[in-house]
Amino acid sequence: MTRPTDEEKSIQHHYRLIEALSESERRYRELVNNLKEVVFQTDAQGLWTFLNPAWFEVTGFSVEESMNTLFLDYVYPDDRELNMERFKPLIERKKEYCRHVIRYRHKNGGFRWIEVFARLTLDHAGAVQGTTGTLTDITERKQAEEEAEQLQLKLLQKQKLESLGVLAGGIAHDFNNLLAAIMGHAAMAERKLPGQSMALQKHMQAIVSSSEKAADLCRQMLAYSGQGHLVMQTVDLSTLIEGILNIMEVTMNKGVILKLSLTEQLPGIEADPSQVQQVVMNLVTNANEAIDKRSGVIAIRTGVTFASKDYLNQCLHSDEAREGYFVFVEVSDTGCGMDAQTMKKVFDPFFTTKFTGRGLGMSAILGIVRRHHGALKAYSEKGQGSTFRVLFPAMNYVGNDQVHAESRPLSRYGAGVVLVVDDEEIIRDMAAMMLADLGIDEVLTASDGKEATEIYRRDAHRIALVLLDLTMPRMDGEETFRQLRMINPDVKVILSSGYSEQSVQDRFAGKRLFGFLQKPYTPEAMQALVEQALTADKGESPL
Ligand SMILES: Nc1ncnc2c1ncn2[C@@H]1O[C@H](COP(=O)(O)OP(=O)(O)O)[C@@H](O)[C@H]1O
Ligand SMILES: [Mg+2]
């Protein structure tokens, strides 16, 4: 073997160098290609000159189609200005590098949150050749942060609500008692004043009317605090609003037109009517004040809607609010509207933008909504107007489609028709709805005993059960019951009444009444009893 010449040695060395170089190049390429971060390079014009495959993973644009195109085209349009601003110190050579968060477009039309890290690339003479750096997709992190922030905000809101609620409730309660004494004594004193002392009487009246205003404030505070006694009933929201139309109209400014579209036969809600009234009045008062002395329209709308979990999350809602059907009232106005800043604070107690405002109306609404397991949503545009929607859980309502879909398999009572007799239309409608919910195929209704007897005479063979109200005009429940028994001694009757069960039992002793339903009844109570009646053997009675 001959020893390699110097020339051969040099060539060998060269090859080894090239090999090592390509090995190192391969290693770097593999490293860059496998990074989750985008590694980029642009030229001085801002055109992409290098992108690793992560680019496609992050933005959905292929590396090929993106090469030699302008990087700024990929920045989310809303963020382009901001992006250039952040790059400025770099371009002006005031900083070595820049790091900021902006959005990049995704090919699917959305965007990704990107943390940009970039520095300038310079040639030997120090002239700018372009930029190089990384883009890190932090969308998930950003979302998690936002969610945590939302949660924190909600928690804070809740704590604020709780502590302020206790305070407001406590004050309101004590003041209420004091005010009651002031008002009472003032009224008594006024009465005892000799007729001619007009001046004194005026003073007394001023005391009374101021006390009334103060009592009203107490009421709002109590509502906000979620304290105070509630009297729950089944309430038809449309009927309730019709009932306070007069009061609303007198409080309205001259140029304001009130437009109503109230849905008939709404499902009931379980609510304290005076509190629901307070909600509507507060909304309408604000709407009226938002229109002020100009002319405008206030529209009040009621309806029933399905609220999904997502929808509820977009609302301010009570912790107990569950996905399902809600009855809502919506109050829109063409008034001054609110900017985003104001919108954020509307429900804060004592927040007001009005000179003589108290800032308790909306907080009271919030308190009431929470106590009724409801939700509420606000929408507003500055200068255009506002819309507030308050939702209450619908009682026993599964939606029209579902009533039909579910009533068939549920109908285990054969052709059991139920006759509902009540002079109150809302009670009849509500009972009919509860029965439909139970799977009863057909419900007949009668508004008094006479009509009930006629229907029963005609359809006794089909009617499996009669739900009978005790107090009715023309022919009361007791007489109706007697008439029905003359037609069919085995008639199955459930009596419902606001009177206590005991007093009714005394009156109907030995008359084979199937059952008794204390008014107001919960759907559960009525459904349990009806189910019992329809499945029980003839003559068997729990009473
Ligand atoms: N319909 C509305 N249009 C415009 N702003 C409203 C409306 N409803 C409420 N606001 C804003 O919310 C604030 C708080 O309302 P509220 O709690 O009723 O207190 P007040 O009416 O005493 O100011 C108002 O001062 C107003 O800025
Ligand atoms: Mg108000």
From TrEMBL:
Domain of life, per the record? Bacteria
Q: Which GO terms describe its molecular function?
A: phosphorelay sensor kinase activity
The family database entries (SMART domains) matched by this protein are listed as: HATPase_c, HisKA, PAC, PAS, REC
Q: Where does the Histidine kinase domain start and stop, copy by copy? A: 170-396
InterPro entries, per the entry = CheY-like_superfamily, HATPase_C_sf, HATPase_dom, His_kinase_dom, HisK_dim/P_dom, HisK_dim/P_sf, PAC, PAS
List the SUPFAM superfamilies hit by this protein, alphabetically. ATPase domain of HSP90 chaperone/DNA topoisomerase II/histidine kinase, CheY-like, Homodimeric domain of signal transducing histidine kinase, PYP-like sensor domain (PAS domain)
Give the enzyme's EC designation: 2.7.13.3
Q: Report the NCBIfam families cross-referenced here.
A: sensory_box (TIGR00229)
Report the protein name in the record.
histidine kinase
Originating species:
Mariprofundus erugo
